[in-house]
Design a protein that fits this description.
This protein is 42% helix and 5% strand. The chain is mostly helical. The chain has a two-stranded parallel ribbon. It starts with a helix and ends in a 16-residue tail after the last helix.
Amino acid sequence: KTINRIIDDPDKFEGRRVDVFGPQDYSYKELAKFVYDITGLDPVLSEIPAPVVKYAANVLQYQGEPHLTPDMVDLMSEDYLPEMTPEGYDAQSQVFTMKDLGLEATPIEKVAFKYLHRYRTGGHFILAEGYH
């Protein structure tokens, strides 16, 4: 919805930033654990230093459709957290937020199952009685 609002009125947003944050902050590790909990997968999660991942990304970026590039490693190595408090965002006019667009963030816990349950082995039917 945020992108649609920007596309509908590009002049209003030209040269400005839109900060889009939800009610919770998650690390990539926390998100992975959350996804694996819903999908029922149990992979081994390893913390690999960014320079090592970037070295691999330098090779992988030349694949037809790269899944990892050095720029992606740089982006994933940065924290994206709100720069201001909600009151600080309200007091300024240079940076838009979802509130300025008339939108409210939906917590990931409310929508994740709807999208992720299909990746379980057997889907959600494997856990529900009467389907097997």
